[in-house]
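ok here's Glycosyltransferase family 4 protein, seq below lol
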Amino acid sequence: MILALQLIGAFFLAVALTYGLRGYALRANMLDHPGARSSHSEATPRGGGLSIVLVAVLAAFIFWGPGASFTDQLLVIVAMVLVAGVGWLDDRKHLPARYRLLVHLGAALLLVCSLWPAGVELLGVALPEWLWAICILLGVVWSINLFNFMDGINGIAGLQAVFVGLGLYALWCGHELGGIWQAEYWLVLAVASAGFLVFNFPRARVFMGDGCSGFLGMMLALGIVSLLSVSWSLFIAGVILHGVFIIDATYTLGLRLLLKENLSQAHRKHGYQKASRSLRSHTKVSLTIAGVNVLWLAPCSAAVALGFVNPLLGLIVAFAPLVGIARALGAGRDDVQSLT
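and the structure came out like this:
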């Protein structure tokens, strides 16, 4: 009963905060105008996703895991503030990418310290701690940025946060001693994201903004990476949940690297962006991705988590169709380029 009241409170608090932040953005002229990277046709206030950040930070003090030390808690809170803060500043006034990247690296380093040490084995071979730390550092930084890249059409990022948040709750149930938070924390994050969606989907009356998209990318990465303290299988199950965002963003970036493009140049080459132009609808694309999450990735994740499938095999099976879809949509290429 108490949890139900907390979730209801989190939802309506997120709705109220989003409404207030939208008004603030309009008064402060924090508007996203149509441009080279935009999939929208009219100026829209940004920064409304800070509501999710505020609810998530508040919930962090309520749902600390029984196995988390004060030092771990402090490191994570500082990382949360850093990523949300630099994103918010970028929403207010554009910051050079190098400054944002430095903050992202610093926040990721704090998370690595909070998770240290964690023994990780790959195919039965224990990874050296330094290699584990580098992999986690780069993975968190990439997650921060890929979530920002994927936040480009109505509802896509909020729906993803709801889905992965619910999935993390399911994976963490019964394993709280290994995590920073109790499993219920991820329910709160999902519910807060749903509250934001009231103003973002199907019609976007306010955008999430970099202050929240990067924050969500970091938090979901933390929830997934922390599962390594429980088992390799649960970690892979968590990665599978985030598959659509991981594959679309990584495939697009990888192909642009191969084509020797300027990676700092704004673009609209992600698979979801191409799909939204082809269908002339944000709603159809966001709901289709949600359907893929629920009908394909959730069962694949569950099969790995429950031990029905080898983790690496399950990852390949889950991701292979997503790679095929990204290629078929022409992700990473100009619209006029062929796929031959």
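fwiw The first strand starts at residue 31 and ends at 32. kinda neat tbh
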